[in-house]
Amino acid sequence: MLGLSKKDTKFLFIVIALTAATPILLQPFPEGSAMSQFNAGYPDLMQRFAIFGIFAIGFNILFGLTGYLSFGHAAFLGVGSYSAVWMFKLLSMNVLPGIILAIIVSGLFALVIGYVSLRRSGIYFSILTLAFAQMSFNLAYSVLTPITNGETGLQVTLNDPRILGQQVAANGNVPPTNFFGLEMGSSLKIPVGGWEFTFNAGYYFCAVIAILAFYLSLRIFRSPFGLMLRAIKTNQTRLNYTGLNSRPYTLAAFVISGMYAGLAGGLLASMDPLAGAERMQWTASGEVVLMTILGGVGTMMGPILGAGFIKYFENIFSKINENVLHQWFSFLPDGLEGFVIWVAEHFVGSGWHLTSGVLFMMVVIFLPGGLVEGGQRIGKKLKRKKSDGDGDDAEHHPKQSPHVAE
Amino acid sequence: MSNSNLTRRGVLKSGAVAGAGVALPTIFTASSAAAYTNEPMGGSVTLGFNVPQTGPYADEGADELRAYQLAVEHLNGEGDGGMMNTFSSKALKGNGILGKKVEFVTGDTQTKSDAARASAKSMIEKDGAVMITGGSSSGVAIAVQGLCQEAGVIFMAGLTHSNDTTGKDKKANGFRHFFNAYMSGAALAPVLAARYGTDRKAYHLTADYTWGWTQEESIVASTEALGWETVNTVKTPLAATDFSSYITPVLQTDADVLVLNHYGGNMVNSLTNAVQFGLREKQVNGRDFEIVVPLFSRLMARGAGENIKGILGSTNWHWSLTDEGTQAFVKSFGTKYGFPPSQAAHTTYCQTLLYADACERAGTFNPCGVGEALEGFEFDGLGNGKTTYRAEDHQCFKDVLVVRGKENPTSEFDLLEVVEVTPAAQVTYDPDHPMFTGGALGECNAG
């Protein structure tokens, strides 16, 4: 169905089901309980999961398939955000024109940067993209302030023309972003027992687009084009010897992945109409590399998992402060409590980077294939227990490269 | 490999799935039943403290957080009550706000607009905060203020000194107790002219964001009005940590005053660089070269150490003031933490108290009611003398202190001395002053 094999169709449906149930899955602890700190089912974070999932899927098309490690993908995200916010300022608060422009502009931008950067490969390519991204960051931060509003970030104001839409909403404020009248901020809260589930329109909008993006990337992975990209990763020199010019393929992959990043940027601005220059900083570019590696390079599901993982840490662990720790460890004797809190303090709150850094190291050392490999290992262990000795000994096989795996 | 077999069944199936996907969002159009965003239902009310815990303003953020915790204690009737006892409005009773116990959540703004908004959003959406307060960078404060306006909660700005916060980017749901760049300029310029003469040539280094821009504009305007000349103005990135390359060009000009429009860690680094390059011993046109830091704080003075001595600047408040409110606040802050509070701590403490008091007087947490109670509110006893929350732009008007780095500090906290207290009348401006136009408050939004 949908031009996919049976296995992939099943896979796609699992992803759709998971995405649709996210507001419930991410809210496992009842409101008011001590563990509710770890609930992540609120609109902003769910939207981020979907959006950064798209960003990582797109990045994976370039890095996972061709092996070209771009260290400047945040530039496309930023360009997408700025284009979308400008559309909100000039045209209307409908998110559609903003997102479309975001994809187009970032695609063009990627074409220019890709054309130059792809003349080199390996580390030189990475450095070139990093340089371009940092250049765009500095342009947005200080040189192009009339367009980007510098450090303050580009915001929508009451004075913007918005020629196609409302300039000022009925309540005297800037109208909210919407999709033909459906407000991105509106949500339906359903209390069930001690739980409260928030079904947010903006999240489902992002989720539908994320699923489309996922489907498209699945098609690319399974297409002859995807096979060509994988050939480039395996041995580009040999490919060139066969008389094939590989540059158009890498450039196409680069532009597609740039457009994915632009789409993510446009969505980010649609959920919260602000575009800040920090989005283009090299740390943001590094983040998507981490997401992809953490989840599993070249796998379909890995980058999405990685994106969710990092965003979860960034938003949940950074909110745990000393007070919360006191509540948790109040059962310990005084001296011990002080010590435990002193230790724990460094891993939560502003120290969340430390926690995610440690986790990242563990994953890279013990699960080189990322979280997906972890899942596969567990799956295999379970399978082997069921049908003992089916001959497929994972330990003795060279690790199958996770290209086509899910 | 792709296998696109177009069958009738396949098309129907795909169509049904796609249709379901498109129809999905349309069922979520209902809005919540509460009268306004995050109406507190139980026995407690949650406030969101959004401060920088990392980045160039982390020191200020840490001190703000201490003050917030102190304010929450006092509101809940714990501790000695601090400035609640000296506050001219007696609506607060020490039983929380409107009888509800005050709880709080904290977040890290990372001194980045994006991160700050994400953090504030999670406070509003996840933790049910009915008021967000914080800042320490005007860029962040403006971004979060915009978010609070959209979300329908009150924003009580913390340390934000840009004119734009209550000027071009003012919002009906946002309120600022702290003074602004225009006030610094108006208070500082006469003192500068009196001490350094009226024919100086100034060179500006400016943090490249809204606060830096408006402070530079304000200082340039007020010093030029007194006869100074501006040689050059150079923007430096907020994330910069080494300013040597910006200081060297100063030596090549005939400027005899360096104005550092920097704050926090930025200012500590740029001042240290300037002193390392020997600017303070320098003579230009037979006169001593001078350095001015228009916005000063004790935390910065501590970071800069020796280099700060004799340097003029302005500040919102200083712990060495002798009025009743200041003394009460310094006492309870000192008892809890062992050192005196900074101006950042003071303004955030005041903002929390002012918000709580406005809720009590309005009898509701509804942002529109609270906003009305704050507009035009006149009060005293919070350490700054008589103060007014102007209704036109939600800016507080009060006296401004001109301070100088102390030559012989008696302790590591006694680093600044007050040179002059500029009366509120001298720093008051018209709501439609050209430096503050270009925006509108809009209507209050209750979500």
Give a verbal description of the structure.
The complex is a heterodimer of chains A (406) and B (447). Chain A is mostly helical and 406 residues long. Chain A has a domain at 41-298. Chain A contains 15 helices and six strands. Chain A has helices spanning 6-25, 43-66, 74-90, 95-117, 122-143, 145-148, 201-222, 224-241, 247-271, 282-295, 302-316, 322-328, 334-345, 352-366, 370-386; strands at 154-155, 178-179, 182-183, 187-192, 195-200, 274-275. Chain A is globular and about 70 Å long. Chain A starts with 5 loop residues before the first helix and ends in a 20-residue tail after the last helix. Chain B is of the alpha/beta class and 447 residues long. Chain B has two domains: 44-179 and 319-393, Response regulator (Rossmann fold, 3-Layer(aba) Sandwich), CATH 3.40.50.2300; 182-315, 3-Layer(aba) Sandwich (Rossmann fold), CATH 3.40.50. Chain B has helices spanning 8-23, 58-75, 113-125, 138-151, 181-196, 210-224, 244-251, 264-276, 298-304, 324-337, 343-362, 367-374, 424-427, and strands at residues 44-51, 101-108, 131-134, 154-157, 174-176, 201-207, 229-236, 257-261, 283-284, 287-288, 290-295, 312-315, 378-379, 387-389, 396-397, 400-405, 416-422. Chain B is globular and about 85 Å long. Chain B starts with 7 loop residues before the first helix and ends in a 20-residue tail after the last helix. The chains are: A mainly alpha (406), B alpha/beta (447). Chains A and B meet through helix 2, helix 5, strand 4, strand 5 and helix 7 of A and helix 1, strand 2, helix 3 and helix 4 of B.
